[in-house]
């Protein structure tokens, strides 16, 4: 019919995420990141948030059946090279997503366990965390928690419900132990990010069943960023879709994310937004 019929589509990544009207985090961040890497994003809306760059005011979870229907229509139509899951919004939605992805066990799955916003507004409760652990972790290729999320997930939901671990606390389990626990819960790899830890550098570590795969240290940038975790997880899914193995994709995703943070801008009164299109905008004055 036309020449466009012959064009090869870019690698396709299916994203499950909540929308963020600021464009800083969530689905919008994922789509921008994937587009920037040369992938095509299929976008399944799991929730709608009300927020600005300062914090999240409210969110409305999408009905679980609607989430599954959105996903199934595109999965049956197009070849998906990787799946990325961000904010989910309800326990029912976790179950629905787990059921859909279980039909596609060969597609690598990146799970960003979104538990709260950058400001700390809760985006998941204990029940949702338990569902993530039971239903999605065993299907996950790479889990991408920050150190706070890693500790909360590894600590489990049983013993000490109300008390979150303070990252400065002497009691805080070592992240290597957290990684081992998370791997034991069934995911293949865990990439724990260290921005919330102390230190001049941010150290991110990739683990698998044998322990540390690699550890990378990055110059700590001064801002507070909205959507850095979404950017990292999507970039990782994108590099997997482009054919890299997990170890290489994790490195490339960190390098890309660090660049987006280095070029971040502050469009409102709150956090900085990573510039996923930094290579289009060119270098700015600091
Ligand atoms: O950065 C985590 C995140 C993911 N998804 C949505 C969000 C946020 C943080 O605010 O709003 C929709």
Walk me through what this model shows.
- The protein has 286 residues and is α/β, with parallel strands linked by helices.
- The chain has a single domain, classed as UDP-N-acetylmuramoyl-L-alanine:D-glutamate ligase (3-Layer(aba) Sandwich), CATH 3.40.1190.
- The protein has helices spanning 26-36, 64-77, 91-102, 126-136, 147-155, 175-184, 228-241, 246-262, 278-281, and strands at residues 12-19, 40-51, 56-61, 82-85, 109-111, 142-143, 189-192, 201-208, 211-219.
- A 9-stranded mixed sheet has the order 3-2-1-4-5-6-7-8-9, with helices on both faces.
- The chain is globular.
- The protein starts with 11 loop residues before the first strand and ends in a 5-residue tail after the last helix.
- The protein binds 3-hydroxy-5-(hydroxymethyl)-2-methylisonicotinaldehyde.
- 3-hydroxy-5-(hydroxymethyl)-2-methylisonicotinaldehyde binds at residues 17-18, 20, 25-26, 49, 51, 56, 86-87, 114, 117-118, 227, 229-230.
Q: CATH class, anyone?
A: Alpha Beta
Number of H/I helices: 9
Q: Let me know the largest β-sheet.
A: 9 strands, mixed
- How does the overall form come out from the CA principal axes? globular
Oligomer state of the chains in this structure: single chain
Strand content: 15-25%
Distance between the termini: 49 Å
The ligands found in this model are: 3-hydroxy-5-(hydroxymethyl)-2-methylisonicotinaldehyde
Rg, alpha carbons? 18 Å
Q: Looking at this structure, what is the CATH superfamily?
A: Ribokinase
CATH architecture: 3-Layer(aba) Sandwich
Instruction: State the helicity in percent bands.
Output: 25-40%
Mean pLDDT: 93
Strand order of the largest sheet: 3-2-1-4-5-6-7-8-9
Helix- and strand-based class? alpha/beta
Q: pLDDT below 50 for ≥5 consecutive residues: which ranges?
A: 157-171
Total beta strands: 9
SSE pattern, N- to C-terminal: EHEEHEHEHEHHEEEHHH
